[in-house]
Design a protein that fits this description.
The complex is a heterodimer. Chain A is an alpha+beta fold. Helices cover 32% and strands 20% of the residues of chain A. In chain A, β11 and β12 form a beta hairpin. The longest helix of chain A is centred in the N-terminal third of the chain and has 34 residues. Chain A starts with 13 loop residues before the first helix and ends in a 27-residue tail after the last helix. In chain B, strands 1-2 form a two-stranded antiparallel ribbon. The chains are: A alpha+beta, B mainly alpha. Chains A and B meet through α1, α2, β7 and β9 of A and α3, α6, α9, α10 and α11 of B.
Chain lengths: 333, 539
Amino acid sequence: MWSGTPLFPEQASTMAARVDNLYFFLLAVAAFFTVLIAGLIVYYAFRYRRRAPDEIGVHIHGGLALELTWTIVPALITVVMFVWGSSVFFAQQRPPDETVNIYVVGKQWMWKFQHLDGQREIDELHVPVGRAVKLIMTSEDVIHDVFVPAFRVKADVLPGRYTTIWFQATKPGRYHLFCAEYCGTRHSGMTGEVIVMEPAEYQAWLSGGTGEGSLASAGEKLFADLACNTCHRPDSQGRGPVLDGLFGKTVTMQNGENVVFDEAYIRESILTPTAKVVAGFQPIMPTFQGLVSEEQLLQLIEYVKSLRSQTEVPTARPATPGPATGENTPVKK
Amino acid sequence: MSSTVLLPPRHYLNDGYGIRSWLLTRDHKRIALLYLAAITFFFFVGGAFAVMIRLELTTPIGDFVSDETYNKLFTMHGVMMVFFFLVPSIPATLGNFLIPLMIGAKDLAFPKLNLLSWYIYILGGFFTLYALISGGVDTGWTFYTPFSTVSSTTNVIPTALGIFITGFSSILTGLNFIVTIHRMRAPGLTWFRMPLFLWSLYATSLIFVLGTPVIAITMLLVAVERIFHFGFFDPRLGGDPVLFQHLFWFYSHPAVYIMVLPAMGVVSEIVPAYCRKRIFGYPFVAFASVAIAVLGFLVWGHHLFVAGESPYAAMIFSALSFMVAIPSAVKVFNWTATMYKGSISWDTPMLYAIGFIGLFTIGGLTGLFLATLPIDVHVTDTYFVIAHFHYIMVGGAIMGYMGGLHYWWPKISGRLYNEFLAKISAGIIFLGFNLTFFPQFVLGYLGMPRRYHAYPPEFQVLNVLSSAGASILGVGYLIPLCYLLWSLRYGLVAGSNPIGAVGLEWMTTSPPPTENFLETPIVTWEAYQYDQPMETHVA
């Protein structure tokens, strides 16, 4: 019965071993202090067991040296944990420059994944081995959470905003994907699998699609269907900013605030256009709240991202100096 | 010796017998017993839910109850245990009973307010029981939005109101304790002569008064968003779902210290009494309580490391969470040092205290894992967290509560319980507890999420071990219920100080008279003065 019972999770990402090394350090510290305290208590309990009914303990008041020792030594150990932990954490939080981006939409009680090439899948996520993958995630209803134990990654998936995680799988295989934030009746059924494939296999899988076209092209069609392009065009007489090449730049708003033009900003501008209006424009855009689904929003975002500055008409003035934010600027996290 | 001792002719238990003499009492000792009855009831209700959870989890597929029922079970288990058992457990029973006795006072500062606190607590309890009987609630005891405000179709509002109402009981109790400790100490009982139990209850009361209003407001906001669709938390109404988590944990993390600080206070009483020795480093243990209470308010963000918190905020909360570990460690080391060269008795309360120190050490050390950012990312919302907080709350708070209940039982009831059965059940509880919760650390690191009705089959063996442990633990809790009740009538008469402990509560009869002390004592000695023969000065 024990044969099928793992006691330690598989390491299947570049981050797994780093997290586990830190874990082993903490385990060693915890084991040392547990054995120390439990050992002393049990030893004292036997060694100083009451022998006579009227026996009393030896008069000891305390000792400053000891108090300082057992305050400072644990404090120093926690400093090590903090510094080591923070350095691994930042590596976990900062994706590398080149990532395979995949959009994730969680809803009660399923996971929807959209690959940039247009592939869509439910409760299964195909990714290539050896390449950094970034998930850009949002929820249609309540809070969910993407958790892949074998990769040691987890992040909440929130309604109304985007969160991201990234990982680089190191071993082909199938790994558990869990929803780790309680989300209602079928929470424990909101599970799936991450399928890590060799790059060639992954390419084959990607191209075996349904022929819907890429996410960006779906977005382009939507951009026209929703008539976004009537204002967001060079000859619109200043009704709306031209979006070409803006993604990742810092843009100045009417109130002087500088805002990074990222996924979160695009989303907000579609749903609540008057929240942050680009300097030099009027708040005349209607809201699309309720008219576009989370998935359509992602298509629009991907289309806007794909608008490289071919035309070079800086209708919206990028603020200077902009930070070196590439395509992979982490969205509001 | 005790068999020849008689109960005092007049004491608080025979000062009136009718139902009115209990329900309209203003005696802190009788109110403590009212609380004891109520929390015992809620403890066993909450425990029954735990039994059903563990039964369901013996198999990987969800077969014993439906997923909907399962979600209600763990919600009600958490709500009952946290708000209706753990939070009031030691303060409202042992604290209520002992604060006036330990400071040489006749009662708390506001006896009527004390009775009112109990009625408020009962009213809140009824609301919650109503929510339970009329269909239950499935949000988890954490009520995370927007699930609780827009998605759940269960009895969120009655439960939230129950918690809201009960909060006032906590606030009033905390206020009463603070004023009592400030104003009603006997002559000569300076702050640094006080038993450490009072320091820890004082720190707890500060959290009651400062923290509870926040949870009350938060529950109210949940109800208002649910009823009137005000957009506090739902992003579709312009709210922020994570705001709820900040508000919730701003109370609920300090609430962890509400649960464990009083247990630490109990251990600080038991260890010197059963080692017949002063506590090692009195001022350090005392200030550690205050430090825990203060720092406890600054660490709530560690519940949000994966909830979209900024990485810089996460770092700050990580650092602060490590800091709160230090005063906890200081306490553990001081208790251990107190045992050095003591005259250690192995009576039941000491067994519980030893169990507390060991289990709290594990609970505290695993807390360091959760303060370490990348480890928390992996184990948060898994069984690792479940194991960790049960080591603190069951291994810590309940062990302390059981230890205190046994230590002061002769004072409360005037009689002795069956020591043999008590030792056996302390051992059963210790073993059952570890078997229940230790495998959950392993499960958590493996990645088993919490609140899962069904789980992948490779996790079954560890879950079966855990369920087996839970059944042992359940037996361990039922035995004391039997022998303590039995002792009320048939136990040997204890006498005023059966174990030769020091402290004002042992200088009056067992059970004490209604007014506690016939004459106000004057304190001329330090706390835990086991090394010098003590004279009782009475004015």
